[in-house]
Amino acid sequence: MDSTVFFQGWGGLLRVVVAGVLGYTALVLALRVTGKRALGKLNAFDLVVSVALGSTLASLVLNSSVALAEGVTAFVVLLTMQYLVTFLSVRSTRVARLVRAEPTLLFRDGFLHQAMRQQRVTEDELQQAARSEGHADLDGVAAIVIEADGTLSVLTSAPKGKLP
User: Fold this and answer.
1) 25 near 60, Cβ under 8 Å?
2) What does R_g of the chain's alpha carbons equal in angstroms?
3) What is the 3-state secondary structure (H, E, C) of the chain?
4) Cα separation of 153 and 144, whole Å?
5) How would residue 9 be classed by pLDDT, with cut points 50, 70 and 90?
6) What is the DSSP letter of 42?
7) Over the stretch 111-137, which tens digit does the pLDDT of each residue have?
8) Letter string b/e over residues 14-42, b meaning 16 or more CB atoms within 10 A of that residue's CB
9) Which pTM does this prediction carry?
10) Helix axes 10-34, 44-62, angle to 10 degrees
11) Secondary structure element (H or E) that encloses residue 108, with its range
12) Do residues 83 and 125 make contact, with C-beta atoms less than 8 angstroms apart?
């Protein structure tokens, strides 16, 4: 077995430490500037940005061909795009419809199979969600909704007004 698998020299380790500390610091500062929403998981775009930021940081730290300036630029580009998408979605219903998923009712007085098929959710998954909320069965459950971020909300009583 090649010994470079285990250790390639002190220079590589030093680069990982320096790039890691500086890259992490740059990412934290960029996130503080752009606000809390940058790491929210309210829709698919938020998730994409979170995953992309993590991947960019890993590339910056572990790939010696990625310079610190390139990694920081990637952070800024991703967070700027996230800011623009959220800024526009708050001000334009057309953009909001494009980027935001709506919650979908999956269970109310029984399974709503068409909605479940569209959302690719099984009866077992809804029952598991109910059990996770402390329900042995679905008798005490008024509704189950898949939220815009993909989580399942179990409602024990019908809220005032209309369910989604």
Assistant:
1) no
2) 22
3) CCHHHCCCCHHHHHHHHHHHHHHHHHHHHHHHHHCHHHHCCCCHHHHHHHHHHHHHHHHHHHCCCCCHHHHHHHHHHHHHHHHHHHHHHHHCHHHHHHHCCCCEEEECCCECHHHHHHHCCCHHHHHHHHHHCCCCCCCCCCEEEECCCCCEEEECCCCCCCCC
4) 6
5) confident
6) S
7) 999 999 999 999 999 999 999 999 998
8) eeeeebeeebeebbeebeeebeeebebeb
9) 0.69
10) 150
11) none
12) no
- 4 pLDDT band (50/70/90 cuts)? confident
Q: What pLDDT digit, counting tens, does each position of 104-113 carry?
A: 999 998 999 9
pLDDT(40) > 80: no
For residue 164 the two structure tokens come to 């989604």
In single-letter form, the type of residue at position 103 comes to P
